[in-house]
Write a structure and sequence with these properties.
Order of helices and strands: HEHEHHEHHEHHEEHEHEHEHH
CATH architecture: Alpha-Beta Barrel
Largest sheet: 9 strands, parallel
Helix content: 40-55%
Radius of gyration: 17 Å
CATH topology: TIM Barrel
Strand content: 5-15%
Number of helices: 13
Structural class: alpha/beta
Distance between the termini: 32 Å
CATH class: Alpha Beta
Length: 270
């Protein structure tokens, strides 16, 4: 049975567009505004899935933009529990058919217990999980629990990964395969790595699941380039920058405006 995440991305591809998957730090700038942004993107059918970042004190994969947002969220008292409660509220709206994925670090999940996490995530309606700081061999070890709660575990494929690593990631992948477009941390960048097309093509040799590209995706030009070979683009730091620059009362409108601009560049082969 095809997962809701994969189905949502492939539906967009069948319509001739690359999928957009925004990343938002839960609780930034407040839990209420996070909820309003996510609900706004869903209600206007602007995205294929949404990645919600659970704030953590040592987010090693993140650049300064997401690190700062995570720090502010932690000061706001945001954690796994409050994040899942927010997601549950969003998923209670009957019109929501957009899959929500949590992205986080392993320590907070271990702290509450892996099974406890998946049980609570299932109750909130979470469809997928990305763990930024564990290798895929460790991710594979928790998949039996994830499968019990019907939550996709999504592997990361680094830009410099070996063919063996790529093949293993594809063998265990659920939902989609996440190709990291840079050798480094998250953050907006002017240019995409010339190696990313080759890496996506390498991944597609081993899986029929959608392939998404993230880290550094920040402009319509990036979306146009990725639409030629990837199935989805994950956009994070540039959204956090927009929220940071906007007045709180304008954050929802500004994010929707930015995603709408990106979506105009999402048609395949334009």
């Amino acid at each position: 049975m095809e997962s809701a995440i994969a189905s949502s991305i492939l539906k967009e591809k069948q319509a001739g567009r690359i999928s957009l998957i925004p990343f938002l730090t839960s609780g930034y700038p407040t839990i209420q505004i996070s909820e309003e942004i996510i609900s706004g993107l869903i209600s206007e059918n602007l995205v294929s899935a949404i990645e919600v970042g659970i704030p953590f004190s040592d987010p090693i994969a993140e650049g300064k933009t997401i690190q700062k947002s995570s720090s502010i969220s932690l000061r706001n008292g945001v954690d796994i529990d409050s994040t899942l409660k927010m997601i549950e509220k969003i998923n209670s709206y009957k019109q929501n058919k957009t899959p929500i994925i949590t992205m986080g670090y392993y320590n907070p999940i271990l702290k509450i217990g892996v099974e406890n996490y998946f049980k609570s995530a299932k109750q909130s309606g979470v469809q997928g999980l990305i763990i930024a700081d564990i290798p895929n061999v460790e991710l594979e070890k928790i998949q039996s629990i994830a499968k019990e709660y019907q939550i996709d575990t999504i592997p990361l494929v680094p830009l410099n990964s070996s063919q063996a690593t790529v093949k293993h990631a594809c063998n265990i992948a659920q939902g989609f395969v996440y190709c990291v477009s840079v050798l480094g941390v998250t953050g907006s960048r002017k240019n995409l790595s010339p190696q990313i097309k080759k890496k996506v093509e390498s991944v597609k040799q081993y899986t029929n699941l959608p392939v998404a590209v993230g880290f550094g995706i920040s402009s319509p030009e990036h979306i146009k380039i990725l639409s030629r070979f990837a199935d989805a683009a994950i956009v994070g730091s540039s959204i956090i920058d927009i929220i940071s620059d906007a007045k709180k009362e304008n954050a929802v409108t500004e994010v929707k405006k930015f995603i709408s601009i990106l979506k105009k560049s999402s048609n395949i082969n334009i």
